[in-house]
Amino acid sequence: MTTGVGIRLPDMPSATGFTDSDFVFMTQNGATVKGTVAQLKTAVAVNATLETFVSGTNFTPGVTTSLTLANTYASPNNIGVFFDGAPQFDFTLSGTTLSFPNGGIPQGTQKIFVKGVVPRSIGAPSAGTVDDNTVKIGSALYRRINSFVDVTDPQWGGCDLAGVADCTTAVRAAIAYALAHGISGVYFPAGTYRFFAASPSLDRKRSIFDVYQLTL
Questions:
Q1: Could you tell me the superkingdom of the organism this chain comes from (predicted)?
Q2: How many other CB atoms are found less than 10 A from the CB of residue 87?
Q3: Domain coordinates of the chain in residue numbers?
Q4: Mean pLDDT across the chain, nearest whole number?
């Protein structure tokens, strides 16, 4: 058995139960560390929220069939619901609405506790941070990325679409890369291209690339 950072651990039998003093092993900031079950429970508790609803203030026993939560938990699996400390399993969650479809909140209930973990958003990658290696090989996007070479790509030197800087080196490098790697298209975005040196023989290469809105 190997951890996420490549440290090999001996094969171990499955645990039959845990106590607060038992050790668990986990990856933290790229290193394999150990901690106790008690520490893990504390960490989970810190990230959990507790919402309390009181009879007469937040609901009426025997009448109220739903509650509005302060947080969005995304799934019923992310919360625990308790009537006066007794766990409940007959409920639904839609957005922030917690509903009790079979009879509502029963008579005699004084407090309802909802304990859950608010889901964290991973968020979108920062602009300019997703590269070719991030895309899953074989996916439709991967095939699209690798179906042609773009002459404005910085790795070729990047063509200037304003027609000011020399595009000769960039275009030659893009065409050479396409030929060497069996790529069927060289893409020229709309713009004006200027060649200070002898112009690349575009007609001779036309069989291996497409030219779109190209102005020389």
A1: Bacteria
A2: 9
A3: 45-117, 133-215
A4: 77
